[in-house]
Prior knowledge:
Shape: flat
Order of helices and strands: HHHHHH
Mean pLDDT: 86
Structural class: mainly alpha
Amino acid sequence: xxxxxxxxxxxxxxxxxxxxxxxxxxxxxxxxxxxxxxxxxxxxxxxxxxxxxxxxxxxxxxxxxxxxxxxxxxxxxxxxxxxxxxxxxxxxxxxxxxxxxxxxxxxxxxxxxxxxxxxxxxxxxxxxxxxxxxxxxxxxxxxxxx
Length: 146
């Protein structure tokens, strides 16, 4: 069943890279836009790091900028096409449909749950600290060095 949803008849990604159309433009827009934005941020950070390392090395400034710009534009295009690849787009559409089914907690329930989590973490941290002190005492009494 998941293969039917994922679209086994969709074209391979390499062939899809050369199209400019948007697959199912009115479905899963928020998840697809956020996924594309995250891919673009990762590409931009990677290209900036590459530019910084090339500029600091033996490459001249314009060469480093040209290489980084070419890789950035290629990465941005691949990110856009990836979220419009039918297999991946159908997955993201299904993710948004499932997220719309989630019942999100209200503010009061969220505050109570946060207090429970914070208290539990604090309690576990104190417990582990005390166990550590006790075991250090036991080992030092036995003459085991650390």
